[in-house]
């Protein structure tokens, strides 16, 4: 009896897939039911989905919001793209050799991604952290394979202290590289070559605005440069905290503020600053209304995207074309 049921299920499944294939072939595409085999877990980086938001932003006529779900990368962060691109670039330049080590000054999401990728590619990864770093963050780094060194100096700027320590290690030891996402153009290029084209491909070129956060500026600059090369009218929006250095430098004109070399200000059309309460509200709404759990940075970019959209000319005319806004969600936490 069970054999007959199984046979019936198989027959139905085969006929159903056959019908789907016929439909797909009529449009010139092949249906891939199973996910393709990956030769390495690193091939899981990128090709993250665009998720249509059905509730958030629905009060604005003829505007659609799509979330670029970078939390679908293996470590849950867009920084997997950045870390892999910088590491491979260093290998190609001959700087990072077999059994070498990567030194990272300071804890951030990129450090997690680097620790993971270095483990896969058999490099030692050393992360230098400040003495007051949260113990849980240290534990997270160690879980991903990092050798964590706590620097206990108490005076001065921690960024400068940790970078100086990293340079001392490089001078004393052989086969050491320091990867810096704020200066390395491999960061920006990863998004010009991959993230941007993915968005363009998945929406068939029907994208009108792109919103992302600040950070190193590499994601916004790379994606923005690609999208504008395809369609110059696309608006590139930086959505950040009101206290962000990008707002202080580019909007409030504080000339003493340093901006990363990986950031290209010529790409940005508008800066939108939001407060912490708005960011937390949209982070919560994203889960409550869409079922998507993402970090506070996503709340910031989403709040910025809504504010930008609300400032656009009214599109309540039925003849108005749909205006599509892509919002980058950088990480899960």
From TrEMBL:
Its cofactor is pyridoxal 5'-phosphate. The keyword Isomerase does not apply. Transmembrane segments: none annotated. Keywords: Pyridoxal phosphate. InterPro entries: Cys_Synth/Cystath_Beta-Synth (IPR050214), P-phosphate_BS (IPR001216), TrpB-like_PALP (IPR001926), TrpB-like_PALP_sf (IPR036052). It holds the Pfam family PALP. It comes from the Bacteria. GO terms for biological process: cysteine biosynthetic process from serine. One of its GO terms (molecular function) is transferase activity, transferring alkyl or aryl (other than methyl) groups. Residues 42-315 form the Tryptophan synthase beta chain-like PALP domain. This is Pyridoxal-phosphate dependent protein.
């Amino acid at each position: 009896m069970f054999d007959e049921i199984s046979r019936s299920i198989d027959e139905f499944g085969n006929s159903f897939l056959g019908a789907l294939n016929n439909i797909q072939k009529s449009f010139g595409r092949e249906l891939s039911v199973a996910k393709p085999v990956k030769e390495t877990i690193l091939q899981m980086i990128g090709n993250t989905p665009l998720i249509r938001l059905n509730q958030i932003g629905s009060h604005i006529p003829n505007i659609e919001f799509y979330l670029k779900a970078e939390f679908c990368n293996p470590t849950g962060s867009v920084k997997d793209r950045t870390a892999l691109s910088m590491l491979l670039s260093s290998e190609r330049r001959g700087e990072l050799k077999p059994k070498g080590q990567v030194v990272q000054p300071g804890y951030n999401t990129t450090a997690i991604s680097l620790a993971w990728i270095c483990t896969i590619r058999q490099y030692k990864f050393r992360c230098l952290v400040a003495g007051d770093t949260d113990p849980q963050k240290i534990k997270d780094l160690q879980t991903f394979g990092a050798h964590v060194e706590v620097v206990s100096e108490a005076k001065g700027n921690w960024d400068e202290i940790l970078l100086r320590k990293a340079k001392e290690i490089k001078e004393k030891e052989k086969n050491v590289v320091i990867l810096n996402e704020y200066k390395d153009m491999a960061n920006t290029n990863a998004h010009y070559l991959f993230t941007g084209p993915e968005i363009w491909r998945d929406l068939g070129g029907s994208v009108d605005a792109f919103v992302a956060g600040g950070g190193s500026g590499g994601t916004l600059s790379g994606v923005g440069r690609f999208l504008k090369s395809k369609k110059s009218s696309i608006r590139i929006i930086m959505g950040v905290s009101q206290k962000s250095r990008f707002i202080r430098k580019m909007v409030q004109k504080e000339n003493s503020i340093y901006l990363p070399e990986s950031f290209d200000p010529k790409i940005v059309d508008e800066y939108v600053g939001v407060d912490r309460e708005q960011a937390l509200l949209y982070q919560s709404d994203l889960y409550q209304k869409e079922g998507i759990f993402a970090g506070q940075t996503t709340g910031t970019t989403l709040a910025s995207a809504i504010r930008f959209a609300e400032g656009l000319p009214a599109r309540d005319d039925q003849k108005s074309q749909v205006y599509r806004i892509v919002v980058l969600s950088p990480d899960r936490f």
